[in-house]
Design goal:
about 110 residues, mainly alpha, elongated
Amino acid sequence: MYRTPVGARIVAIAIGMIFALFVSRETSPVAALLAGIVIGIALWAAMGFYVLPQMNPTMAARIALMPLGYFAAHILFGIGLAMSPAFMRMFVRERPDRVRVHTQQILPI
């Protein structure tokens, strides 16, 4: 079983949180998907060409043996990022079965 280093998980969580801060609930799914894929490709390039050779040359050598899988993993990460506007819509949407009482409708005693 492949185990992701803890530092990579923390960076992935941080990037996901930053991405969610910059998109809104009204962001179209296509725009979110394109932005997520672009960020995934940018991370792939930054990690593959700069961070890994500097920080962990052994892992960089292993990644060189499977570049397509490494690229596909970053694209899938970008697609996962693109789901954040859908999650925000899902958790913030008002339900039609819930009755909402406005303060103007409440009569004083």
